[in-house]
Amino acid sequence: MAKHNMITRRKALVAGAGSVSAGLLLACGDPQIQVVTKEVPVEKVVVKEVPVDRIVQKTQVKEVPVEKIVTRNVIKTVEKVVDRIVVKKVEAEVPSRFNEAPSLAKLVASGDLPKVDDRLPKEPRVIEPFEKVGKYGGTLRYIDLEGGGHQTSSLRINGLLTFNQQGTEIRPDVAKSAALSADGKTFTYELREGHKWSDGEPFTTEDIMFWWEDFMNDTDLNAKLSSTWRPGGEPAKFTAVSPTKLVIEFAVPHPGIIDLHGRAVMSGDGNFYLPKHWIKQFHKKYNPKADELAKEEGHDDWTQLFKTKRNPPGGFLVGRPRLFAWTTTLNTLNQIQLERNPYFHWVDTDGNQLPYIDVVDSVLVQDQEVYNLRLISGDVDYAMGYSSLKDMPALKAGEDAGGYKIRLPKSNRPALLALFPNQTHADPVVRKLMGDLNVRIALSIAIDRNAMNEAVFFGLGEPFAFTVLPSMPYYKEEWGKAHTEFDPVRANKLLDEAGLTERDSEGYRLQSDGNRFTLVMEIANLETPKDAMCEMVAENWKDIGVEGIVKVEAFGPFQEHKADGTMDIGTWHADRGGLFGRLSPLWFAYNSTWNMWGRRWVEWFTSDGEKGEEPPQYIKDHKALFDEFLKTQTGTPENVKLGREYYQFFTDQLPVIGTIGWAPRPMLVGNQLINVPKTNIWWSSDTSFYPPYRAGQWSLDR
After folding, report:
1. What is the mean pLDDT of residues 625-651?
2. What's the distance, CA 362 to chain centroid?
3. Is the dihedral of CA 621, 652, 520, 385 positive or negative?
C-alpha cells in the first residue's frame, strides 16, 4: 500500500508541474563536452566586421560555425593560427549608443553622476535577454533564511569567468577574454578597458596584484600559499603587463586554472581581486595605524579587520565597492537591501545598461516552515535553494492564489547524499572495518535506492554512484551504476566473509572487540534531504545486522569529529564532479580536509609529511596519478586516458557511497518576473548557483 501511494504522488507531481515536468526531467540528458579545435567561417550576414578565427590544436581538428557557442576552447579575435586554449564568447555587437535607468538619468541631470557612456567599459558585456528586452524599475521581493543570507549573496555573484548552466562551457564576464598557452604554463587575462568599481574608481590589474601580493602572499594573512597557486611546488608568477593585461606563469602545466575560475566566485571579488583603492586603508603595509583602526571596530588586530572587510559575513557590507549588479545599502538581522550599481558592466542588445531591476529587497526568516508559508502567500517574486520536492504539493497548490509558477531545475549532482566511511578512523577496530572493501560494498548494496527515490524524490531522481559527471570526456557508463544494486543477501554474505559473524540479542553484528557494529552518520548540511535519506539507510542496514544512527548537528561539531578522527561516516552531497572539480576536488582527491574518507592521509600530503598519517603506497600512487592528470587539457587523449585511470578508483575501491542523483528542486518564479530561464535549467554549487541565470537581465513586467 505504501508503494502504491508513493507512485500516485509521483504521477500527481509530474502532471502538476506542467510543461517543465516530464518533458524537462525525461528529455534533458547530460550535456557532452565538445572540444573545438578549429573554427571556419560560415555564410551569414555579420553586422560587425571581425577577423575570422582559426584555432588549431595538434591532437584533432573539427570544423564548426564561428557563431556557435562552444565549450572550453572558445573564440578569440586573431589574425593567424594560434596554438593555445582561448576562452571568449561570441557576443552581439556592442550597441552604438547606451541607455540608462530613469533613476540614474536624474542623477546625471543633477550632476551627481557621470553620463552612462563614461560609466561603462569601452567594451561592456552584451547580454541577450532570455525572453525579451526588459523594463527598468521595480523591487524584486526576495526571501532568505537568517544567519548569512546565502541565497541573496549568490544572486549577484560574478567573476572574471563564468560557467553555463551545466558547468561544461566557460565564458568571460568581468574579464574581456582569457587564454592559456599551448604548454599550459602561461595564463593571460584581458580586462575590459574603462571598467569601474561601484564607487566609480577604475578596476584594473592593480586590484588583482594587490590580492596576490598583499593578501595571498602576506604571511600575516596567509600562513601558506594554497597548492592551487604553487603547482609543481613553485609559486605562480603574476605580472601586470598593463592596466588591462595580466599574465600568470606556472612552473608546470596547469590548465585546470581555467576550470577553477569558471566558477565565478573563484575568479571574483575576494578570491582573485580586491578594491585596492578602498581596502588598503585596513592593511598595515599601507596604513601604519591599521591596528588602532581595528581596535576601534572591536578587533584584536589589523589582520582580523582586513579579513572582515575582504569577506564580510554573507558578503554584505554597506559602502564596500563592488563589481556586482547591486550593492548593499541595508544589512540587518531580518532584512538585506541591494540597489543597482550605476557602473555595472552589462548592457542588453538594445544598449540598455543592466540591471533592469532597481532594488532587491530580501526578507530573512527564521526557519523553513516560515519560509514556505511566505512563498505560498505570494509575498515573493523569486525563490530557490531551500525548498525541496517534499514541499511541492503545497507549492503547486498555491500557484494561482500566490501569483507564481513552479519550475524544476535539475540538480547537477550524481549523489544528493554521499556517505564517507572513515578509513583513517581513530578507533583501530572501526578503521579496519571501514578499510575493508567488502564491508563498504555491503553497506552500499544494502541500500534500497529505488524505494528511497520514490519516498524522498517522488521517483524523479536516479539511483547513482559517487562518480564524476557523465558529461566529462573520461566518464565510463558503468561507473554510474557500480555497487548500486539492492542485494541484501549478498551484503550479508560479504559481512560474514569480513569476520562479522557474531550477533547480539537484537540481531546486530559484533565487532572483534565485542562492541556492536554501529555506524553514526553525521549530517551538518541539509541543502538536500540527507536526514530523511539517512533514516532510510539506517533501516536498510538493520536488515544486514548493522546499527545505523542518524545525527544532525551544527557545523562546528561536525568539523571537530572530522579532525579528531571520531567520525564514523561523514555525509555531504556529491558535487565537484565536473570541470570545476579538477582544481577543487574536495573528496575526489587529497588536497583538501573536506576529504572525509581519508582525512589523516590528506593531512600528511598537505603538510608535506609533518602532520597526519603516512598513507599506504596505493594511495600515494593514486595521488601521483592525479597530479599528472591535472597537467592535461580536458578532452585531449592523454586527459581521457589519465582521467579514466584515476576515477576508476572510485568504482573499484568505493571510498564513497552514492545514493540518488539528479533529482530536481522547486524554483518559484513570480508571474510578473521575466527573463528567468525556463528550459534546460540546472542547479549546482559548481557554477556558483546563480551566475548562469543572469539575474541582472531579470525584469519585472508590472
Report:
1. 96
2. 22
3. positive
Which residues, at least 6 apart from 296, have a Cβ–Cβ distance to it below 8 Å?
none
Cβ neighbours of 627 (radius 10 Å): 15
The Cα angle at residue 469 between residues 464 and 473, in degrees rounded to 5: 130
Least confident of 84-98, 160-174, 432-446, 463-477: 84-98
Cβ-based neighbour number of residue 426 at 10 Å: 13
Contact criterion met (CB below 8 Å) for 364 and 146 = yes
Collapsed DSSP state (helix, strand, coil) of residue 645: helix
And the C-alpha cell for 479?
561507473
For residue 110 the three cell numbers come to 543633477
Write down the pLDDT at residue 85: 64
In order of 97, 119, 447, 681, the CA distances from 348 in angstroms are 11, 15, 50, 21
d(Cα 417, Cα 659) in Å, to the nearest integer?
A: 6
Specify which residues 328 forms β-bridges with: 338
Confidence of residue 87 (pLDDT cuts 50, 70, 90): confident
Residues 274-300: tens digit of each pLDDT = 999 999 999 999 999 999 999 999 999
Count of positions (residues) in the chain = 702
Please enumerate in sequence order all residues whose Cβ is within 8 A of that of 73, keeping only pairs 6 or more positions apart, or say none: 35, 36, 37, 55, 57, 85, 86
C-alpha cell at 600: 589523516
Task: Extract the C-alpha cell encoding 28.
Answer: 534533458
The three three-digit cell numbers of residue 41, written as one number? 567561417
Q: Give the single-character DSSP code of 85.
A: E
Average pLDDT, the chain: 88
The DSSP symbol for 599 reads H
Helix H or strand E encompassing 171: strand 170-172
Helix (H, G, I), strand (E, B) or coil at 92: coil
Q: Are strands 404-407 and 667-670 parallel, antiparallel or unpaired?
A: antiparallel
Domains detected in the chain = 2-66 (no CATH), 102-346+667-700 (3.90.76.10), 417-661 (3.10.105.10)
